[in-house]
């Protein structure tokens, strides 16, 4: 797998950034802008307009409200396109009717995008919740890497990514996340990749008090940690041979909580992780971990979905 492979070093060509014209979305667009500039890539802005059903506003409006909304959205997008063009970025835009996740993923597919950038939160109230679900749907369904940016993340910090937390279960998804991070952020020896493996028994085992089972569970955790440390040592040597600065650790606990806490403690600039692991049950479990990390991570989260 090495990050020096042709695919991992090839520049990005097309980046899609979702926007609802909110402040968090603007931060996401700024990350996309920085990456587009660094790679010489085209930036595609995507905005979804909800189609209002007749009678939804109580009375029949004297004009086609949805068409007016679409027109207004395109005017706002034109303003953003002009600003980004002045910053030296090649920009295109799309405003269309539909669910935000569908509009964004459709644009990504049609332009052959290498990356989708989206804010995890948007406008207040109901829209605030809706943007969260939009990010979740995109992370779950996108066939290309997704960079999820939070409202509190540093504006335009893409060029300063130096500390990366990479949760790994030694699956293809985890390896793909590292390759994607190296390619997207041009990681080299000046960056530090923190490999993190979390050992976690199902919560059901923690309620059992029988001495025999308790001892077996503890022994399983300890042996799992020993094996993981050996596997991490092998992976660390491999990645150092590819020119990366690597640190590694094994921890025990709830995976999402451990990942978020370690990213905070390390002052991470990025968390890069797969959305699934190995095996059917583990896929469901790791999917929920990725979702929680995207929602609550202290820094942008890059997710990569394994292509079946």
C-alpha end-to-end distance: 17 Å
The first-level CATH class of the largest domain is given as Alpha Beta
Largest sheet: 10 strands, mixed
The value of Rg in angstroms is: 21 Å
Q: Counting H and I runs of at least 4 residues, what is the number of helices?
A: 9
Percent of residues in beta strands? 15-25%
Fourth-tier CATH superfamily name of the largest domain: HUPs
- Percent of residues in helical segments? 40-55%
Number of domains: 2
Quote the CATH topology of the largest domain. Answer: Rossmann fold
Indicate the low-confidence ranges by residue numbers.
122-130, 209-213, 278-286
The order of strands across the largest sheet is 3-2-1-4-5-10-9-6-7-8
* Reported CATH architecture of the largest domain: 3-Layer(aba) Sandwich
Brief summary of the model shown:
The protein has helices spanning 6-9, 23-39, 65-86, 100-111, 125-141, 172-185, 211-241, 255-266, 280-296; strands spanning 14-18, 42-49, 90-97, 115-119, 146-149, 163-167, 192-199, 245-252, 270-274, 301-304. It is of the alpha/beta class and 308 residues long.
């Amino acid at each position: 797998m090495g990050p020096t492979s042709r695919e991992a070093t090839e520049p990005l060509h097309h980046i899609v950034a979702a926007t609802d014209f909110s402040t968090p979305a603007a931060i996401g667009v700024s990350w996309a802008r920085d990456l587009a500039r660094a790679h010489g890539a085209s930036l595609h802005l995507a905005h979804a307009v909800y189609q209002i059903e007749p009678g939804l506003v109580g009375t029949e409006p004297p004009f086609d409200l949805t068409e007016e909304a679409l027109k207004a959205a395109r005017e706002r997008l034109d303003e953003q396109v002009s600003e980004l063009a002045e910053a030296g970025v090649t920009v295109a835009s799309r405003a269309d009717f539909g669910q935000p996740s569908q509009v964004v993923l459709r644009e990504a597919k049609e332009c052959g995008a290498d990356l989708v950038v989206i804010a995890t939160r948007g406008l207040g109230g109901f829209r605030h919740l809706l943007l969260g679900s939009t990010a979740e749907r995109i992370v779950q369904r996108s066939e290309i890497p997704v960079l999820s940016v939070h409202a509190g993340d540093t504006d335009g910090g893409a060029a300063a990514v130096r500390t990366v937390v990479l949760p790994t279960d030694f699956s293809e998804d985890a390896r793909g996340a590292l390759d994607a991070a190296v390619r997207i952020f041009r990681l080299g020896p000046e960056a530090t990749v923190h490999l993190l493996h979390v050992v976690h028994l199902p919560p059901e085992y923690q309620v059992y008090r029988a001495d025999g089972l308790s001892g077996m569970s503890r022994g399983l955790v300890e042996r799992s940690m020993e094996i993981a440390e050996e596997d991490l040592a092998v992976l660390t040597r491999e990645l150092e041979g590819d020119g990366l600065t690597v640190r590694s650790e094994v921890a025990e606990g709830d995976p999402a909580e451990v990942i978020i806490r370690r990213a905070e403690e390390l002052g991470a600039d990025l968390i890069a992780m797969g959305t699934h692991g190995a095996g059917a049950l583990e896929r469901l479990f790791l999917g929920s971990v990725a979702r929680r990390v995207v929602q609550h991570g202290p820094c942008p989260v890059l997710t990569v979905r394994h292509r079946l």
